[in-house]
Amino acid sequence: MVKLPKQQKLIFLILLIVIIYFGVKYWQTYQVENKYDITQKKECLSKKGQWVTWGEGWFCNNFYEDGGEVCQSENECSSGKCLADEYSKTDHGRCGSYFNVPGCFDLLSDGGKHTGFSCINNFLRVETK
């Protein structure tokens, strides 16, 4: 058996304690976040939403029944978004089926005025089950 000097034994013991401490903290955090995500995911999917990751973390991309209907203003859509094709000259668009719709769109309000722009990258991952 190899004998270690007292200083090396102390360093080894401190390192072991630090590794155990952070390992337990990580495991506890992972357990809590996983339980939270599963509950939120089930609730989201039960309402026809999409469980998506985009950047850090997961969230529910809410589904709206009036998605796809013709609109001229955001107040005509339950999502609050009337989306026209990017750079279109039309005075109408379609209500978003989901709160966040990947792609680039002009936002319409007040009878078809182009009042803004929405450009959302594709989600990193979408779960529907």
Describe the structure.
With 129 residues, the chain is α+β, with helices and mostly antiparallel strands. It has a domain at 61-127. The chain contains 1 helix and 8 strands; from the N terminus they run αββββββββ. It has one helix at residues 6-46; strands spanning 50-53, 58-61, 70-71, 82-85, 93-95, 103-109, 113-120, 125-127. The strands form 2 sheets. The chain has a 5-stranded antiparallel beta sheet, with no helix packed on it. The longest helix is centred in the first third of the chain and has 41 residues, at 6-46. It starts with 5 loop residues before the first helix and ends with a strand. The model has no long low-confidence stretch (mean pLDDT 78).
Please give the largest β-sheet: 5 strands, antiparallel
Tally of helical segments: 1
Mean pLDDT: 78
Radius of gyration based on Cα positions? 25 Å
pLDDT < 50 stretches:
none
Strand order of the largest sheet: 3-5-4-6-7
The dominant shape is elongated
Strand percentage, roughly? 25-35%
Counting helices, strands and paired strands, the structural category is alpha+beta
Helix content: 25-40%
Amino- and carboxy-terminal Cα gap: 55 Å
Number of DSSP E strands: 8
Write the H/E string, N to C. HEEEEEEEE
